[in-house]
Specification:
CATH superfamily of the largest domain: Medium-chain alcohol dehydrogenases, catalytic domain
CATH topology of the largest domain: Quinone Oxidoreductase, Chain A, domain 1
Largest sheet: 7 strands, mixed
Strand content: 15-25%
Shape: globular
Radius of gyration: 20 Å
Structural class: alpha/beta
Order of helices and strands: EEEHEEEEEHEHEHEHEHEHEHEHE
Number of domains: 2
Distance between the termini: 24 Å
Length: 339
């Protein structure tokens, strides 16, 4: 089978594309013929040498996938051959990744694909959608009519946060770096969009939320906590997506006087049951049109190195060139490739 993999950590050019033996289906596993995958920042960290856990060698990169089950282990009762599925949480904790034509996985990480949804859509939604759901509802416990601020509404996780918050009846304030991205945020349902390159974020947010927001979703790798805490209402909740090495100053006094709470979490450490519950809501919202994928571009799987370069430029070098996810498709996809 064709796959994108590394033999040792390194830059994007360390990714090889070629033939590897297809995995065997264990008694408690399913084999999925992969149609689409997507790139996440954590994929680039692992490929670059982040020493989170030992990796198989060769190591197939990638977390997210969507495709069709082609074999079911004898102990599996929950899934069947021919079923379309999507999922995430692969390529983590020592598991092989998804950038391959065939993957063998534990069925607890595979969710049924809603009728009408494409594999491209579900691959793009997988990790970012589950992350957004866990943060909004397990951690922040967002309620209808609450006011939420989320940075960068066209981003991978942020676009999911925006849409899910609207799906439950919250009011969403977000930011955009261009008129085009601002328009896209409004199309996704944002109530207010602050174009930070032409207006003051602090002043505009104060106008829109004079009493503060109930939920502040921070996507910056190195947050400005003085700004964030100042923008939060009493008893507000903040969700963090900071970089692992971030060490910004934190205004403890103003934070605790307001009675606020701060939540950080790693999606891949959440239980299979929690992630499946998130997937069920995601499937419902996709099926009813309340949740749409946000895809910047689609590439063939053999362009995995280029996809990693683009993601790294966006995430680490702060070159805001992406408005959504990079999706890659295998030869099993029915779609034509396009940039």
């Amino acid at each position: 089978m064709k796959a994108a993999y590394i033999r040792q950590p390194g830059p994007p050019d360390s990714i090889e594309y070629g033939d590897l033996p297809a995995p065997q289906c264990g008694p408690g596993q399913i084999l999925v013929q992969v149609s689409a995958v997507s790139v996440n920042p954590i994929d680039t960290y692992i490929r670059g040498g982040a020493n989170y856990w030992p990796l198989p060698n060769p190591f197939i990169i990638g977390c997210d996938f969507a495709g069709t089950i082609v074999e079911v282990g004898r102990e599996v009762q929950t899934h069947h051959v021919g079923q379309r599925v999507w999922g995430s949480n692969q390529g983590l904790l020592g598991r092989q990744g998804t950038f391959a034509e065939i993957i063998a996985i534990d069925p607890k990480w595979a969710y049924p694909t809603s009728e009408g949804a494409t594999d491209r859509d579900m691959a793009a939604i997988a990790l970012v959608g589950i992350t957004a759901h866990l943060g909004l509802f397990s951690r922040a416990q967002l309620k209808p009519k609450e006011l939420i601020f989320v940075r960068g509404g066209t981003g991978g996780v942020s676009s999911m946060v925006l849409q899910m918050a609207k799906a439950v009846g919250a009011t969403v304030i977000t930011t955009a770096g261009s008129p085009e991205k601002a328009t896209r945020c409004r199309e996704l349902g944002a109530d207010h969009v602050i174009e930070y390159n032409r207006e003051s974020l602090a002043d505009r947010l104060k106008e829109l939320a004079p009493e503060g927001v109930q939920v502040f979703w921070e996507t910056l790798r190195d947050p400005d906590f003085d700004f964030a805490v100042g923008a939060m209402a009493p008893n507000a909740r903040m969700i963090l997506m900071a970089g692992r090495d971030a060490r910004p100053p934190f205004p403890v006094g103003p934070f605790y006087v307001k009675g606020c709470s701060l939540h950080g979490f790693a999606m891949f450490k959440e239980s299979a049951e929690s992630q499946a519950a998130s997937a069920a809501d995601i499937n419902h919202w996709v099926r009813t049109g309340l949740l749409r994928s946000q895809i910047d571009r689609v590439l063939p799987l053999q362009d995995a190195a280029e996809a990693h370069r683009l993601q790294e430029q966006h995430t680490l070098q702060k070159n805001s060139s992406l408005a959504g996810k990079i999706v890659l498709e295998t030869n099993h996809s029915n779609h034509e490739y396009h940039g």
